[in-house]
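for the writeup, i need someone to sanity check this before i put it in the appendix. the sequnce is what the collaborator sent (i think, or maybe the updated version? ugh). structure was predicted straight from it, no edits. if anything looks off just tell me and ill rerun, i have time this weekend
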Amino acid sequence: MKIAFMTEMGFTGKIDKTHENMRTEFAWMNALDAVHFPLKDYQMVRDYDYIIIIWPKGNVDVISSGSPALPVKPRPNLLAKYLSQPIIRTLKNNNNKKVCYMQEGPSWFFNDYNIVDQFNWYNIVVDSDIIFCHNISDTRFYDGLFPNKDIKVMPSLMIENLISDLECHPDNKVIIGGNFAKWYGGFQSYMIADEFEAEKWIPTMHNKRQYEDQIEDLHHLPYMNWLQWMKTLATFKFAIHLMPTVAAGTFSLNCAYLGIPCIGNEKLDTQRLCFPELSVDVEDLVQARQLAKKLFEDDEFYEYCSEEAKKNYEMFFRKEIFLQWWNEWNGINLKL
């Protein structure tokens, strides 16, 4: 079976199992032995069984209410240049059997596009043969918007080759899953993290807020690739990620592999399946605070959550499980 991924990244080729920046999309490509092509080169991609397109999210210049994000100068939506091109039709004419839409970010992100781009986005999803999404909760959104479309959850994935010998040496530290933006809910996580009575850390990401690094009791990790991130994460004892955005859930997945108890959003499959006792409605900060307090005070509960997370990771998210899922609905036998 020949599989290709297409994104706006500029390289052509496969992802080796020792790639040091093994993000989820690279893990998918590696597991499926897929070739990656830049989206701009769509006219030359032909004769594949599956083309899986991860469309860029694009730029938006409005806040969540739809009001302009002043005083930012309006920027063109970089996705728009692709939305107006006959990419899917061309790929199908090039003897590619199935052209698939792969969710990137939350299902609602397109709501912040202008009206023309919203309808163009809708049309590319309609023209796709399959919709791949992140979570069971996402299927209900896409199934309602695109009735009778083939919709499947593509599980988040890690390729473990570079971290198979990684040992955890946790210090009394808590890692917060994202910065102080609505997307990540970093402020809420920071406040609840007080219950751990531990040193608080947070990653540096694209949406780090101005003055965030001036919070006296909050330390920022530098930008790092996936391998550096996993080695650093292995030094933490607690994790909290009250992110309201429902997406791929890689933070919870990384924590589960290492056995770091993580409080997080119950709508993420990685969180719900790996940490059932620590999954919350992210607006229920009372429950989140109670769980943080229990993790800190109850060693038995902490160890239970840690060990169960590692077992659940093995049960639901190993590469072998991912390929079994792929094989079952395709009726094929990709090499495990």
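The chain has a mean pLDDT of 92. The chain has two domains: 3-159+319-330, 173-316.
thx in advance!!
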